[in-house]
Design brief:
Elements lengths: L4 H11 L3 H21 L3 H10 L15 H10 L3 H9 L11 H22 L10 H8 L10 H11 L3 H13 L2 H4 L2
Helix pairs in contact: 1-3, 2-3, 2-6, 2-9, 3-5, 4-5, 5-6, 6-8, 6-9
């Protein structure tokens, strides 16, 4: 199957109405595309993996259903096994090992993108362009802030990618800033 971004976005919007969840998937897509360029990987595969990783979450948010409900749809439509494996591996509770760089990158950016949005919204300008890495690091230490975001996943993700946490935060922030208008940040 040839990966078509427009088709993938249509699939996403057929299953997701929540604008914040759509923005999350756009943020993950932007970070994944940037990492694909950095690592010399297939930008389209990586981007669409990021775009579709949570497309089933709005209607199927429980660990019993997400991401396997969406995975079944992707398999039926003939999406690549590498993408499907990465989507399964981004959910630690499934126990699917993160083996490829694609698997590791998706896991590494997923929680971090949401955390960066939360920290940005606390800043006076509410703009990604003004967000400092030190502000993100400071908020990581505050357990009460964005308590649903797994700090452990953020730390493990950077470690598995072999990238220093500050560099990882800056890289993901910059990738998200490239689509700041779409994100409203």
């Amino acid at each position: 199957m040839s990966l078509n971004r427009d088709d993938a976005f249509t699939l996403l919007t057929e299953h997701t109405e929540n604008i914040n969840l759509i923005k999350h998937m756009l943020a993950v897509e932007a970070a994944m595309r940037a990492y694909a360029r950095k690592f010399g990987e297939d930008e389209n595969l990586w981007g669409i993996t990021g775009l579709l990783h949570d497309f089933d979450y709005e209607k199927h948010p429980t660990p019993e259903e997400h991401p396997m409900f969406g995975v079944a749809i992707l398999e039926e439509k003939g999406y690549p096994e590498a993408m499907i494996h990465a989507i399964k591996a981004h959910a630690p509770y499934l126990g699917v090992p993160r083996e490829s760089l694609l698997d590791k990158a998706l896991f590494a950016v997923d929680e971090l993108t949401g955390f960066i949005v939360a920290v940005t919204l606390m800043q006076p300008t509410k703009k990604l362009a003004d967000l400092k890495v030190s502000s993100v690091r400071k908020k990581i230490k505050q357990k009460g802030f964005a308590r649903n975001v797994s700090r452990e996943d953020i730390l493990i993700g950077a470690e598995e990618l072999g990238i220093e946490l500050d560099d990882h935060i800056a890289f993901v922030r910059d990738a998200m800033n490239d689509i700041s208008d779409d994100l409203g940040l």
